């Protein structure tokens, strides 16, 4: 009878070890699967972020081109005004010098 009890205990321990091994294996599979999914999700998010970044950069590049064009047009306009004033002042200066000496 004692040998039967020992056998049952040994069988129970063996079954416990088998179940523990299966549980560890399943745990490792779940962790590995989760890591794989997390890695894929991270790669997907990085791709989405890169695409969004390119989109934003393209929008700012367009705005920069428009800003440069406007700034260039504004500068050209101011230069034209300055040239016109300078020509008028030059003509006045020439007339004043001529009138004073002649």
Q: What does the model show?
A:
The chain is 98% helix and 0% strand. The mean pLDDT is 93. The protein has 102 residues and is an all-alpha fold. It starts with a helix and ends with a helix. It contains one helix and no strands. The chain has one helix at residues 2-101.
Which structural traits does this protein have?
102 residues; mainly alpha; 0% strand; rod-shaped
How many alpha or pi helices?
Answer: 1
Mean pLDDT: 93
Please bin the fraction of helical residues: over 70%
Question: What would you call the shape?
Answer: rod-shaped
Largest sheet: none
- Secondary-structure content class: mainly alpha
Return the string of H and E elements: H
Give a summary of the structure in a few sentences:
The protein has 102 residues and is mostly helical. It contains 1 helix and no strands.
Could you give the topology of this structure?
Elements: H1 2-101
